[in-house]
UniProtKB/TrEMBL annotation:
<feature type="domain" description="ABC transporter">
    <location>
        <begin position="2"/>
        <end position="207"/>
    </location>
</feature>
<dbReference type="Pfam" id="PF00005">
    <property type="entry name" value="ABC_tran"/>
</dbReference>
<protein>
    <submittedName>
        <fullName>Putative ABC transport system ATP-binding protein</fullName>
    </submittedName>
</protein>
<dbReference type="GO" id="GO:0016887">
    <property type="term" value="F:ATP hydrolysis activity"/>
</dbReference>
<dbReference type="InterPro" id="IPR003593">
    <property type="entry name" value="AAA+_ATPase"/>
</dbReference>
<dbReference type="InterPro" id="IPR017911">
    <property type="entry name" value="MacB-like_ATP-bd"/>
</dbReference>
<dbReference type="InterPro" id="IPR003439">
    <property type="entry name" value="ABC_transporter-like_ATP-bd"/>
</dbReference>
<keyword id="KW-0067">ATP-binding</keyword>
<dbReference type="InterPro" id="IPR015854">
    <property type="entry name" value="ABC_transpr_LolD-like"/>
</dbReference>
<dbReference type="InterPro" id="IPR027417">
    <property type="entry name" value="P-loop_NTPase"/>
</dbReference>
<dbReference type="InterPro" id="IPR017871">
    <property type="entry name" value="ABC_transporter-like_CS"/>
</dbReference>
<dbReference type="GO" id="GO:0005886">
    <property type="term" value="C:plasma membrane"/>
</dbReference>
<keyword id="KW-0547">Nucleotide-binding</keyword>
<keyword id="KW-0813">Transport</keyword>
<dbReference type="GO" id="GO:0022857">
    <property type="term" value="F:transmembrane transporter activity"/>
</dbReference>
<dbReference type="GO" id="GO:0005524">
    <property type="term" value="F:ATP binding"/>
</dbReference>
Length: 208
């Protein structure tokens, strides 16, 4: 279960961004909606352990994220939270499979080669395992980001506008992958989006 309470954040010279309390039960799937600039990416960064909020708490399975020392927090995030950013962040000098394997290594987990290949196959991109990021389209990179976020079987998968660069067919495939893979892995899912195609698939909404 994920719980945020009394959260607020102030960037240098910025206004105070305040976030309503939120409880996400195991395996629940949520949309995070709100107008541009209202703080969706900020909230996702806070929940995923990347940005310490000015006020409030984030509990993931009973662990209060921001009481952990930095190294423990990094490791906790690597094991429990999968993140898909607006733009894919892949290591250019590593091929696709090595990028997936790096996610496990960084979290101190063993590499599961078969699982990584089957994640790629599930997204229809098994043939790209040995390609380098520079050789791939935006849509292919986005699907690889989805696979990489699932490598460590996270409790929570967070996706920030995961379908914005995809055509209908690829968007549908990614939404299906996100919703079914998170269920199969017992993970909760948060998707921040403006994309109507995603809104049709997920019932619960947190509005900022
Ligand atoms: N690193 C930063 N430093 C200072 N201000 C920031 C920073 N990141 C975001 N902000 C400000 O905080 C507010 C919320 O930004 P955020 O990116 O979280 O909104 P958002 O809802 O995700 O927007 P969008 O839908 O356009 O991506 C905005 O006013 C933005 O300018």
């Amino acid at each position: 279960m994920i719980k945020i309470s009394s959260l607020a954040h102030v960037y240098d010279k910025g206004r105070r961004l305040k976030f309503p309390n939120w409880e996400i039960a195991d395996m629940e799937q949520w949309l995070l909606l709100g107008a541009s600039g209202c703080g969706k990416s900020t909230l996702l960064n806070i929940i995923s352990g990347l940005l310490k909020p000015t006020e409030g708490e984030v509990l993931i399975n009973g662990t209060d994220l921001y009481t952990l020392p930095a190294r423990k927090l990094d490791r906790f995030r690597g094991r429990h939270v999968g993140i898909i950013f607006q733009r894919p962040h892949l290591i250019r000098s590593l091929d696709v499979l090595d990028n997936l394997e790096l996610a496990a290594v960084m979290a101190g987990l063993p590499v599961d080669h078969e699982r990584n290949l089957s994640l790629l196959a599930g997204l229809g991109i098994a043939g790209l395992a040995k390609n380098y990021p520079d050789e791939l389209s935006q849509g292919q990179l986005q699907r690889i980001s989805v696979a990489r976020a699932l490598v460590n079987k996270p409790d929570l998968l967070i996706a920030d506008e995961p379908t914005s660069s995809l055509d209908d067919e690829n968007a549908n495939q990614v939404i299906r992958m996100l919703t079914t893979q998170t269920k199969d892995n017992g993970a909760a899912l948060i998707i921040a989006t403006h994309d109507q195609r995603v809104r049709e698939h997920i019932a619960k909404t947190y509005l900022l």
